């Protein structure tokens, strides 16, 4: 067996204190992608120590110099795109074209945040007193702990790491145990592009206690977490106990609304991509289809025809459109929701089962699934499934569609298909999700716009775009009095 994939702490690749290892396996074949060190709290302590020691030097490095490093990272990611993408597919299963898109998001984010090395604009305002200036500048928060999921193992670490770095923070990254090899390759790029020792640290492990140790560490100033709502709730409570800042990106229960005047061919394209792309394993995946009753039967028939042509298989094979679920536990989770939907009275139109014959026997494959006669109160209409399962709900008009859309606990992404400008404008005003698409699916965010959700999808922070800078920085107000005498604000005005 090859040498295990190691932690990266203080600029060195090191083993875990426990001496244990765990395997990352290909969800399509069961093959071992990599054997990785299995870390514990002691390894978190070492990574935090390295990040703390590196912070002062990194924050004092001129931001344009930090930006130059990120520009190099973008170029290296572009050069290594194929290798990185194939590793993404082998570790978490998404088809190769989507894996390349995963890497492309990191490339885009690196370029975007690198340019912030010469921006990070503050502001200057007039003082209320004479011979006095007033301004605000951004300050890094310190050491940030990043906890990232398996479904976007290159993109999401980049969304968190690059804004943190450009602002002068140091990082401890704890990736999902489902995608440790990909995370290691990502950090290798940063190392090779000149990130100083201790500025970025990587700790691999299979135990939930690893993330908990990071959240609770006394030196962590900020935790940025992407994952399930249940885990995010616990992260928030643990972080609050230590007076830490916390940014949460959690679940979604996203819907596509199709009106009676919609371009149905276009809608079917968007629905298919949104519901079954990444095997439904996206926080922005569409799992509710709210269809005007006048076109419901026709649209359902068109969608069934499209689904029958979808190709499920190993994401590395040409022509495959849907890969496996990430692991057996996720497959069992999807199966439980199928049973719940049927027990509550939804009508299963197609799919609803694991694929286990022939080439599927060694993987975690699941048939694309469509339910009809779904009611808004059913579990499959309220809870995040994270699999290739879509439920059709009939609505009588746009107002009912918006009300049903807004009735869930999440508020991430919504799409509307209509040719009516007035309808579109009302929907953009009244839909209560943080991302709204008109005549496009629920997935496809761009790095220069804020990403995140309302209600239980998050806690108000956003990733990507300028909003990410607010997550990873503090505002410092600076007053310079050059009057040569004591001036008292709010008092010396007469």
Cα radius of gyration in angstroms: 24 Å
What's the architecture of the largest domain, going by CATH? 3-Layer(aba) Sandwich
- Average pLDDT, rounded to a whole number, is 97
Give the tally of β-strands: 23
Quickly name the level 1 CATH class of the largest domain: Alpha Beta
Structural class: alpha/beta
What is the CATH H-level superfamily of the largest domain? Aldehyde Dehydrogenase, Chain A, domain 1
Largest sheet: 7 strands, mixed
Proportion of β residues? Answer: 15-25%
Explain this structure to me?
By secondary structure, this protein is an alpha/beta fold. It has two domains: 7-250 and 458-478, 3-Layer(aba) Sandwich (Aldehyde Dehydrogenase, Chain A, domain 1), CATH 3.40.605.10; 254-438, Aldehyde Dehydrogenase, Chain A, domain 2 (3-Layer(aba) Sandwich), CATH 3.40.309.10. The chain is 37% helix and 22% strand. It is built from 15 helices and 23 strands. The chain has helices at 41-60, 63-79, 81-92, 96-115, 155-166, 180-192, 208-216, 229-241, 264-276, 296-308, 328-343, 379-382, 398-405, 421-430, 467-471; strands at residues 7-9, 12-14, 21-25, 32-37, 123-126, 132-140, 143-147, 170-174, 200-202, 220-226, 245-249, 254-258, 286-292, 347-350, 354-355, 365-366, 369-372, 389-395, 410-411, 413-417, 435-438, 454-455, 473-481. The strands form seven sheets. Strands 14-17-18-13-12-20-21 form a seven-stranded mixed sheet, sandwiched between helices. Strands 9-8-7-10-11 form a five-stranded parallel sheet, sandwiched between helices. Strands 5-6-23 form a three-stranded antiparallel sheet.
